[in-house]
Write a structure and sequence with these properties.
Largest sheet: none
Protein name: Light-harvesting protein
Strand content: under 5%
Order of helices and strands: HH
Main location: membrane
Keywords: Antenna complex, Bacteriochlorophyll, Cell membrane, Chlorophyll, Chromophore, Light-harvesting polypeptide, Magnesium, Membrane, Metal-binding, Transmembrane, Transmembrane helix
InterPro entries: Antenna_a/b, Antenna_alpha, Light-harvesting_complex
Transmembrane segments: 29-51
Mean pLDDT: 89
Length: 52
């Protein structure tokens, strides 16, 4: 048996920030999202579904 208590959501939702520190991960996540958005737009325009 494990001694780790089961999370009581949503009361324990704040604890994710103890693992995912925004000071470390926020900007890399935004940059990854920007790269993904640019890639999706590039594919859409390359297929010919962009503005006419």
């Amino acid at each position: 048996m494990s001694d780790v208590a089961k999370p009581r959501n949503p009361e324990d939702d704040w604890k994710i920030w103890l693992v995912l520190n925004p000071a470390t991960w926020l900007m890399p996540l935004f940059y990854a999202l920007l790269v993904l958005a640019i890639a999706v737009h590039w594919v859409v325009f390359a297929v010919g579904l962009g503005w006419q």
